[in-house]
Design goal:
It is built from 14 helices and twelve strands. It is an alpha/beta fold and about 400 residues long. The strands form three sheets. Strands 2-8-7-6-5-3-4 form a seven-stranded mixed β-sheet, sandwiched between helices. Strands 9-10-12 form a three-stranded antiparallel β-sheet. Strands 1-11 form a two-stranded parallel ribbon. Helix 1 packs antiparallel against helix 9. The longest helix has about 40 residues. The mean pLDDT is about 95.
């Protein structure tokens, strides 16, 4: 079998060789606990400090505003619960969107059970919130606005700077889940008015099981894990030194290559979108055509089940998904595609293809041909499709 064609970088990215190399010393000779005071701990301690500085510089933050975590999900949970419980004083109001990652939505559900009220802003057919509706949703007891930088399924990039400005005007804290956007597009937390930001290592060619929470100095952040002085007393537990060192190296590489990588991915993405829309009838692109992540393409094909298409692509050695990897196996239509107004039949016919630094034009061409063939084959066995085309129907 030929090598895999990997087009699911939104789920995870391959570990950069340089990141792996940076991890190895802390899996071997430099095994000391960074919280200890003897000489063996100096190298691990320095690795944490260096990675913290690298991550901070990537978003134009200060190193003391970076807290390493176990991943983006933990960072989202920490941001929402810490702000709600501290500033809401047992009850208050938060604003988020209907198409956030479940790490945010499920945390909001947890807070609702504890007396907090949540406003879930709707989005339009491209996945954008309305700034007017955001302003209208703000109440005297609103303690936090949480809007993701870019959507993990359809790639739509929200107007983060404008949201940050609204939050500042109303003296409300602003959190953004930047798991998909971090190291994909430039982020400046100071310029964008971001108070809290979540990100994850394995989305940017680093190891799994590591992430960070940025919390601006003015945020009265409370500890998330209790029992030790690690992360300046905010997250107890011996640090994952190897993972954090790998994360730091991955971020360093991504920052150096971001402009070239973005141009490469955007070019191939546009080529992919153009061909799929032109050569596969009854197909729609989900999300914004222009204001989307450079590596994201999300399609819905009428008259097929997306899961069947993904199985056939897998048999061809092509890795793709229908949406968030965190909901793989769910029989329910994507909440993101439902939020942008897709009917169940169209939402269930979705395919997400997310490119990476190593994606080639040849791989895209092979993928387009495979998609064309499998969609045609799947439709040929559909009585609904046959009746539709016989009657001269039009695409939804």
């Amino acid at each position: 079998m030929d090598p895999w064609i990997y087009l699911d970088h939104a789920a995870t990215t391959p570990l950069a060789p340089e990141a792996l190399e940076a991890m190895l010393p802390y899996c071997g000779e430099d095994y000391g606990n960074p919280s200890s005071s003897y000489g063996l701990s100096e190298a691990p301690k320095k690795a944490l400090a260096d990675a913290r500085q690298t991550v901070a510089a990537a978003i134009h933050a200060d190193s003391e505003e970076i807290y390493f975590t176990g991943g983006g999900t933990e960072s989202d949970n920490w941001a929402l619960t810490a702000v709600a419980e501290q500033y809401g004083q047992g009850g208050g109001h938060l604003i988020t969107t209907a198409m956030e990652h479940h790490a945010v939505l499920h945390t909001c559900g947890y807070l609702e059970e504890r007396g907090f009220e949540i406003t879930y802003l709707p989005v339009n057919e491209q996945g954008f919130i309305s700034l007017r509706e955001l302003r209208d949703a703000i109440r005297p007891d609103t303690v936090l606005i949480s809007v993701m930088t870019a959507n993990n399924e359809i790639g739509t990039i929200q107007p983060i700077r404008e949201i940050g400005q609204i939050a500042k005007e109303r003296r409300i804290l602003f959190h953004t889940d930047a798991v998909q956007a971090f190291c994909q597009i430039p982020i400046d937390v100071k310029e964008m008015g971001i108070d809290l930001l979540s990100a994850s290592s394995h989305k940017c060619y680093g190891p799994k099981g590591v992430g960070f929470l940025y919390a601006a100095k003015q945020v009265n952040l409370k500890p998330f894990l209790h029992g030790g002085a690690q992360e300046r007393g905010m997250r107890a537990g011996t640090e994952n030194v190897a993972g954090i060192a790998g994360f730091g190296k991955a971020v360093e590489l991504c920052q150096k290559t971001m402009a070239a990588r973005e141009a490469h991915e955007r070019s191939l993405r546009d080529y992919l979108i153009k061909r799929i829309l032109a050569e596969v009838p009854y197909t729609r692109l989900n999300g914004s055509r222009k204001l989307r992540l450079p590596n994201n393409a999300n399609f819905s094909f009428q008259f097929i089940e997306g899961e069947n298409l993904r199985v056939l692509l897998d048999m061809d050695g092509i890795c793709a998904s229908g949406g968030s990897a965190c909901t793989t196996g769910s029989t329910e239509p994507s909440h993101v595609l439902k939020a942008i107004g897709l009917p169940d039949a169209l939402a269930n016919g979705s395919l997400r293809l997310t490119l990476g630094a190593g994606t080639t034009k040849e791989e895209i061409e092979k993928t387009v041909e495979a998609v064309k063939k499998h969609v045609a084959d799947l439709r040929s066995g559909s009585a609904v499709y046959e009746a539709f085309t016989t009657a001269g129907g039009q695409p939804a």
